[in-house]
C-alpha cells in the first residue's frame, strides 16, 4: 500500500469517475485503474462498485476511504512543517466565496494580499454555502468565505466581522419616508429576495419571520427569481418594492442610490462573516495571513463592531 494508491483512491471517491480522477491526478486512466486494482488485491476487498454510474464505493470501501483521507492529511502535515520554517509564504490557496460576499469583499483585500505574498497562487471560486462545505470536505478547497454559524461538525469557523443588513427601498414606497425601519414593517408582497440555495435569502426571510416559500415580490404581475443582489437592486429602482442588502454592498454606491438605503432600527440585525476550514485543515500560516489581510482591509465601523443580534442562516 502506497500514498500514491491512497491518493488515487480518494480521487475516485471525490469525482466518482475514473477518467476525471486520473486527469486530476495527472496520470492516465489505465495507470490509475491498475494501481487501484493492486490495492484491492492487496487488501482482498472490492473498494468500488464499477457497475454503477457514477461509480460508488462499496460499504467497506467507504470506511477505507475515510481512513485514507486521514492518512493523507497527516502525511501532508510533514510538508507543512517544512513550509512553516521558510520565511516566505508560498504555494496554492484555494478559496471558495459565496456570491453575496465575493463582489464586495474580495476587491478590498485581494490585491494587497497578492502584493504581500507574491509566491502564493490564489484560486477563487464563487459557490453557494453547501458547495463550499462539500468541497472543503473533499479537499477541493482550502478555505471558504461565507456566513455562519453553520453548526457543521466537520467545519471549523473563524469569525471575521459582523455586517448590518440594510433596506434598499423604491423612492415611491411608503417606507422611503422613514429614517429607520423596523423588521415588522416589511410586508412579503413588497419584498424581493434571492433564489433558494442562497444563505442570504434564508437570513432575509428569518428577519421578516416569513418562512422559506417566497420567490420574489408576489404582489405584482412580475415574479423575477434572481441569484444576484445587483439584479434585485435594479428591480427595486425601476419597478417597486424593496430588498435587503449586506452593508459591504452599499459602501461604494453613488450618492443618488445611497438615498434609497435605510438602516434597521436598533438592535440592527447582523450577519456573521467567517473563514471556514475543515477540522483537519492544513496551510495554517497562509490562512492566518489571509485572515489578517481581510480584517485589516475592512472599514473601521465594520471591523470594530461587536457580535450582537446575529441572524440565523437556516437551511441552505
From TrEMBL:
Matches recorded under InterPro entries: LysR_HTH_N, LysR_subst-bd, WH-like_DNA-bd_sf, WH_DNA-bd_sf
Keyword Transcription: yes
Matches recorded under SUPFAM superfamilies: Periplasmic binding protein-like II, Winged helix' DNA-binding domain
Domain HTH lysR-type, residue spans: 1-58
Pfam families per record: HTH_1 (PF00126), LysR_substrate (PF03466)
Chain coiled-coil ranges: none
Range of residues in the leader sequence: none
Protein's name according to its UniProt entry: LysR family transcriptional regulator
Family: Belongs to the LysR transcriptional regulatory family.
Keyword rRNA-binding: no
GO molecular-function terms, A-Z: DNA binding; DNA-binding transcription factor activity
One Gene Ontology CC term in the entry: protein-DNA complex
Keywords for this protein: Activator, DNA-binding, Transcription, Transcription regulation
Top-level taxonomy: Bacteria, Pseudomonadati, Bacteroidota, Cytophagia, Cytophagales
Amino acid at each position: 500500500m502506497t500514498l500514491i494508491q491512497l491518493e488515487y483512491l480518494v480521487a475516485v471517491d471525490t469525482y466518482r469517475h475514473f477518467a476525471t480522477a486520473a486527469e486530476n491526478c495527472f496520470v492516465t486512466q489505465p495507470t490509475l485503474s491498475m494501481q487501484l486494482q493492486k490495492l484491492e488485491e492487496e487488501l482482498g476487498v472490492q473498494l468500488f462498485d464499477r457497475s454503477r454510474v457514477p461509480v460508488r464505493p462499496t460499504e467497506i470501501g467507504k470506511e477505507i476511504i475515510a481512513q485514507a483521507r486521514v492518512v493523507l492529511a497527516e502525511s501532508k502535515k510533514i510538508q507543512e512543517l517544512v513550509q512553516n520554517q521558510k520565511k516566505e509564504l508560498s504555494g496554492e490557496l484555494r478559496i471558495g466565496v459565496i456570491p453575496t460576499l465575493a463582489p464586495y469583499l474580495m476587491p478590498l483585500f485581494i490585491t494587497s494580499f497578492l502584493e504581500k505574498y507574491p509566491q502564493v497562487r490564489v484560486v477563487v471560486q464563487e459557490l453557494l454555502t453547501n458547495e463550499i462545505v462539500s468541497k472543503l470536505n473533499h479537499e477541493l478547497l482550502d478555505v471558504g468565505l461565507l456566513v455562519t454559524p453553520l453548526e457543521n461538525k466537520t467545519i471549523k469557523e473563524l469569525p471575521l466581522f459582523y455586517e448590518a443588513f440594510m433596506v434598499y427601498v423604491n423612492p415611491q414606497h411608503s417606507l422611503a419616508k422613514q429614517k429607520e425601519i423596523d423588521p415588522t414593517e416589511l410586508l412579503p408582497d413588497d419584498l424581493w429576495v434571492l433564489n433558494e440555495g442562497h444563505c442570504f435569502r434564508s437570513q432575509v426571510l428569518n428577519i421578516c419571520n416569513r418562512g422559506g416559500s417566497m420567490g420574489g415580490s408576489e404582489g405584482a404581475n412580475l415574479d423575477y427569481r434572481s441569484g444576484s443582489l445587483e439584479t434585485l437592486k435594479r428591480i427595486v429602482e425601476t419597478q417597486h418594492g424593496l430588498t435587503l442588502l449586506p452593508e459591504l454592498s452599499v459602501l461604494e454606491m453613488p450618492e443618488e442610490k445611497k438615498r434609497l438605503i435605510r438602516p434597521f432600527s436598533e438592535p440592527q440585525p447582523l450577519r456573521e462573516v467567517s473563514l471556514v476550514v475543515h477540522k483537519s485543515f492544513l496551510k495554517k500560516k497562509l490562512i492566518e495571513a489571509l485572515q489578517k489581510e481581510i480584517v485589516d482591509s475592512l472599514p473601521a465601523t465594520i471591523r470594530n463592531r461587536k457580535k450582537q443580534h446575529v441572524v440565523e442562516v437556516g437551511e441552505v
